Backbone:
DNA sequence: CTCAATGCAAACCGTTTGCATGCTC
DNA sequence: GAGCATGCAAACGGTTTGCATTGAG
């Protein structure tokens, strides 16, 4: 997506087109990695973009509220992570060795969810799935 | 399980049998609720059990490390929650209205997990599933 | 008697907030 | 020009830690 595309996405959400909103969207749209606020802050610093950490947090909040980003919490981490919302339902496969996080685009729960909804009386609006294990590389180091 | 049963579980794990370990195990074993450290601390205070909050945290850490408790993180909460480990695989159904958390004892992922392991090259050691929605009561208040 | 458990106070770290200033519409 | 965005510093809340004291084995 072009820079103008990001601007359009911001305006389309009824938001003001500001410098750091564009920068954050551009930055996260270029990776499949889940980044924390501090990671984003540091990576931008390296590119000589002087943003304040509070602004990172506030911008992330706005973009999450407007479904441009997703906020993700990983079991065992105290920080939140963020990803660019590509509107593709997915889950994560997480390596306990190197902390690599890999998205999985096929979801095993659609059918199950309907049954659960019927049986529980809940109106189910979403779910979250994570798989944990050891990737090919880290498997080898498991003595 | 009797009080002596909890003591045996502590000793069996090679741990010292101390006052607060027994109290915490007894307390969590009586509920299916996921409690935070502060909730445990407050509930014990109400029962006139004067434990220090640091001790709650340290005791929880020990019991989690020894598989007597499970540490659970709920999406969107910054605190950890804890449950007595009954060695029954389960997941959670969480109401976005009243924050009620209900365990589900049937797991849809066994077969899928094997396939994923084969396809991804990961050695999968576990997973985590949560369903979000609105319970019967809260459904009614959704305007 | 020894070493681990506990209490207490202070530190820590991710995140949020109040306020003054700057920028978008 | 009005009101939201940003920078800065301070506050916040959950959790951890250092150190002195207590208690289990």
Residues:
């Amino acid at each position: 997506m072009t820079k103008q595309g990001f601007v359009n996405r911001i305006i389309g959400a009824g938001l003001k087109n500001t410098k750091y909103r564009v920068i954050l969207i551009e930055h996260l749209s270029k990776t499949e990695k889940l980044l924390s606020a501090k990671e984003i802050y540091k990576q931008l610093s390296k590119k000589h973009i002087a943003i304040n950490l509070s602004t990172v947090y506030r911008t992330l909040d706005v973009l999450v509220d407007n479904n441009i980003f997703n906020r993700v919490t990983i079991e065992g981490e105290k920080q939140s992570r963020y990803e660019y919302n590509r509107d593709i339902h997915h889950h994560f496969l997480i390596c306990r060795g190197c902390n690599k996080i890999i998205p999985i685009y096929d979801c095993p729960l659609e059918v199950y969810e309907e049954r659960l909804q019927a049986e529980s009386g809940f109106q189910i609006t979403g779910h979250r799935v994570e798989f944990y294990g050891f990737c090919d590389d880290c498997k080898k180091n498991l003595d």
Observations:
- The mean pLDDT of chain A is 95.
- The interface with chain B takes residues 71, 73, 75-76, 78, 93, 95-96, 102, 104, 108-109, 112-113, 116-117, 120-136, 139, 142 of chain A (CB under 8 Å).
